[in-house]
Amino acid sequence: MPKTVYLKDFTADKFAATLTAYGRYLMETDRGKSVKSYLGDVRRFIGWLVAKYGKVNLQAVSPLDLVEYRQALQDQGKAPGTVNRALTSLKVFFVWLRETRQVRDSPVDGVRLVAGAPRLAPKWLTRPQQAAFVRAVREKGSLRDEALVGTMLHAGLRVGEVCALRRDDLHIGERAGKLVVRQGKGNKYREVPLNKTVRRLLARWLEANPDGPLFPNRKRGPIAVRGVFGLVAGYAYKAHLPGVTPHTLRHTFCKNALDLGVPIDQVAAMAGHSSLDVTRRYTAPSMVDLQAAAERLAWE
User: Fold this and answer.
1) Is-above-0.70 flag for pTM?
2) Whose CA is closest to 213, among 150, 162, 171?
């Protein structure tokens, strides 16, 4: 068994190196979009520890420290969602420290989140927005991009899962098809059925691209997570749709499925959700829904 090395007082150099390693871990676990937020939450907590104790010893951090930090954030007037996001970020950080044997346990486990307004559903694209986005992709005429975007919209894959797909992960027939996600979130294996639309898009792309990576970049290597984020952002800009990311396409898949009456347990299985509670988020109203409801109450 590897020797456990516990973090003592942090020097600036050691803290920077630890955060660099942690940032790489976040990128590898499909949290690329949120790396800056996760690291920012950790840095703010470290700053609070330094202000309180004059030094940083993460092994000595206790659940009481987290409770006091939670209260400090509330005293600063932070919204419940902001406080809870900070606690969630710190939980991920301490779990990583524990798994890499840098601390014995996570002091965040068991610390309660702040009760607040009900969590709104994730952002998804409406049917007209989906049409605008797909039209922007088709205007370029790229079979690769049509197949890649179609896989996210019709199979609900995470961006990291799309980038990891290999040719032998696809099984496409005339009347049925599926793709295999070998290492999803939590290192979970799952098989996702493919509908007629995405089978057609993938078949056209495979015929035009018979060898090499399934979704290559410009240098003919496998496309990276950053490349998919850039690709989606570019098409969203052309379609005049702000704030669209690969995660938005995944959320859209889940919302479409539930709206069409697919049972929630089947949607959870296809999306690779850890529990039905995650899938139930898509039955909650979005901010767009609430704004539309508020407008119906206007006098003008």
Assistant:
1) no
2) 162
